[in-house]
TrEMBL record:
Keywords of the record: Acyltransferase, Amino-acid biosynthesis, Branched-chain amino acid biosynthesis, Isoleucine biosynthesis, Transferase
Pathway linked to the protein: Amino-acid biosynthesis; L-isoleucine biosynthesis; 2-oxobutanoate from pyruvate: step 1/3
UniProt-listed InterPro entries: 2-isopropylmalate_synth_dimer (IPR013709), AIPM/Hcit_synth_CS (IPR002034), Aldolase_TIM (IPR013785), Citramal_synthase (IPR005675), LeuA/HCS_post-cat (IPR054691), LeuA_allosteric_dom_sf (IPR036230), PYR_CT (IPR000891)
Protein name per UniProt: Citramalate synthase
GO molecular function (one): (R)-citramalate synthase activity
This protein's record includes keyword Transferase: yes
Domain of life: Bacteria
Positions of the Pyruvate carboxyltransferase domain: 6-272
GO biological process terms, semicolon-separated: isoleucine biosynthetic process; L-leucine biosynthetic process
EC number: 2.3.3.21
Reactions catalysed: pyruvate + acetyl-CoA + H2O = (3R)-citramalate + CoA + H(+)
Source organism: Shimia thalassica
Protein family per UniProt: Belongs to the alpha-IPM synthase/homocitrate synthase family.
Length: 543
């Protein structure tokens, strides 16, 4: 069966930038455009030239891409010709091969927002589209509020899109601007537009996620015959966002009937870069990636419940709708109070610890994890703490050194020059096989420099300063991330600290500490990280 072509149009750099709190720089726009192009997106909308300096500058850089680079703007304003409209001129001067212009199709908006007659609005749309075609641009008309407009006045809504199509627009894109439409409305209205004379091969869909149906609405439009989908990476966009291309792309490639019926520009090979593309955008936005995101989230293939993990180990398809590697994601079998022995054995074998089914140590480890989680610990992500605990129960954890005591002091004051200073000082006494050792660390930081070192850093520096015979092994350990949560351990509120570490081989590991005192919780996690490193790197307890 020959597949029909479906076109993907990305508006991350325009509607995505309409997300509250999102403002891309020009280099960031270039980076995102390159990622989209690498995936195989057909159209990359770069922004609205002339609307703000960043968008104008981005278009001036004339980014090279295989995708059709597209400028966004609005139809000409009433009372002037397309040639004389300076807002439209800025869009045209960007000199892109394609131009997408938004125009009104809802009678209420023509009256309320524009304050012109319906006839004037239709004429403005026609004249603007004709102008774009005359200038040799691939012309797209974003039919704003189309689904609401069709409900309010179907004849007028159809008149506007038919006028744009008759004037030569290549694509008429039906927009659910306020995001309130449901799949059935979208399906039936799209069918009505096709019946009125615009072929599906010239119809696109642009949806918003205000009822969490943006993806479903896009698919409904495709089911009805539309052949272009507009959306954004990670579903960024005005208010609740746009249709999420990060979800739509794998659905179109992997799910029926779409996979058999349609061809898209994204190949199965490029699909393997989707998780990376999604995380890169979050990285640029300095956002924590959404764990529950479909297909690309860190938890999208995390099998926490014991029954699930048991079956997953026999055949992953028992609890996975697709193979995570197809979209560049990973399967995780976390340890937690929902776990059974199957999760445990998988997690142990990932740590290189082979334990036979039925070994009584498995029950002991599981019970300890469940007890500790009840106290506030969490082993979902703190895989190194899990491993240390398991090794202890298996009799495979040597004790290298003991910490007899530590003391940490922080002081905030003004120095002689009147500058605010924060000083942290730590002393740690450890019992090494060779005897007792006391190390200290003192840091005077100028708070005006916004330095982030404090008591935890002082403790860390004191602890790792001189561990005698083990020093060579722990020298390259770096602290890379620090997360704090207040949680309920038993009946008391306690602090849970999770710390990520890295060594010079690039290996990363995380540990957890819990205490009523944040510094003490941190200390526990620091200590565990060093123990894990010593265990993993084959330290031998010195005589
Ligand atoms: C549905 C969407 O998301 S479309 C994308 C929306 N994106 C943006 O608005 C971001 C970029 N926009 C901007 O930077 C500015 O709005 C500009 C530069 C385009 C215009 O700025 P200003 O001239 O100051 O106008 P302002 O933003 O206050 O209002 C928009 C004007 O455009 C008019 N307008 C709105 N839509 C259209 C249209 N499709 N065709 C013609 N005129 C329109 C409005 O009636 C209003 O005119 P008025 O001031 O005479 O009432
Ligand atoms: C054009 C557009 O972004 C909208 O109607 O939602």
């Amino acid at each position: 069966m020959t597949k029909e072509r479906l076109y993907l149009y990305d508006t991350t750099l325009r509607d995505g930038q309409q997300t509250q709190g999102v403002q891309f720089s020009t280099p960031e726009k270039a980076q995102i455009a390159a990622v989209l192009d690498g995936l195989g997106i057909d159209y990359v909308e770069g922004g609205w030239p002339g609307a703000n300096p960043t968008d104008s500058e981005f278009f001036e850089t004339k980014p090279k891409m295989a995708a059709t680079f597209t400028a966004f703007g609005m139809t000409k304003r009433a009372g002037m010709s397309a040639e004389n409209d300076d807002v439209l001129a800025a869009v045209m001067n960007a000199d892109t091969p394609a131009v997408c212009l938004v125009g009104k199709t809802h009678d209420f908006h023509v009256d309320t927002a524009l304050g012109i007659t319906l006839e004037e609005n239709t004429a403005n749309i026609s004249k603007t589209m004709e102008y774009l075609v005359l200038k040799g641009r691939e012309t797209l008309f974003d039919a704003e509020h189309f689904f609401d407009g069709y409900k309010s006045n179907p004849d007028y809504a159809l008149e506007t899109v038919l006028a744009a199509y008759a004037a030569g627009a290549r694509w008429i894109v039906l927009c659910d601007t306020n995001g309130g439409a449901l799949p059935r409305d979208v399906y039936e209205t799209t069918k009505a537009v096709i019946a009125a004379g615009i072929p599906g091969t010239h119809l696109g869909i642009h949806t918003h996620n205000d009822t969490e149906h943006a993806v479903a609405n896009s698919l409904a439009a495709v089911d009805a015959g539309a052949r272009q989908i507009q959306g954004t990476l990670n579903g960024l966009g005005e208010r609740c966002g746009n249709a999420n291309l990060t979800t739509l792309i794998p659905t179109l490639l992997l799910k029926e009937p779409y996979a058999s019926k349609y061809e898209i520009g994204v190949s199965l090979e490029a699909l393997q870069g989707l998780t990376r593309a999604s995380r890169l955008l979050d990285d640029i936005l300095n956002r924590v990636p959404m764990k529950q995101a479909a297909y690309v989230g860190a938890s999208a293939f995390a099998h926490k419940a014991g029954l699930h993990a048991s079956a997953i180990l026999k055949d992953p398809s028992t609890y996975e709708h697709v193979d995570p590697s197809v979209i560049g994601n990973e399967r995780i079998i976390p340890m937690s109070n929902q776990a059974g022995q199957s999760n445990l054995r998988k997690r142990l074998s990932d740590a290189g610890l082979r334990v036979e089914k039925g070994d009584p140590a498995l029950g002991r480890i599981l019970n300890r994890i469940k007890d500790r989680e009840a106290e506030g610990y969490s082993y979902d992500t703190a895989q190194a703490s899990f491993e240390v605990l398991a090794r202890q129960e298996l009799g495979m954890a040597e004790s290298f050194f003991d910490v007899e005591r530590y003391r940490v002091i922080s002081e905030r004051r003004r120095n002689a020059r009147g500058h605010l200073v924060v000083e942290s000082e730590a002393v740690v006494t450890v019992q090494l096989p060779s005897g007792r050792k006391m190390t200290s660390y003192f840091k005077n930081e100028d708070a005006t420099e916004m330095n982030d070192e404090g008591p935890v850093n002082a403790l860390w520096q004191a602890l790792r300063q001189d561990l005698g015979p083990y020093q060579d092994i722990i020298n390259d350990v770096r602290l890379v991330d620090f997360k704090v949560r207040i949680t309920n351990g038993g009946t008391e509120a306690v602090t849970r600290v999770i710390i990520d570490f890295e060594d010079e081989t690039g290996r990363r590991w995380a540990t957890v500490g819990v205490s009523a005192n944040i510094v003490d919780a941190s200390f526990e996690a620091l200590l565990e990280a060093l123990n894990w490193k010593l265990l993993r790197d084959g330290a031998v307890r010195a005589a």
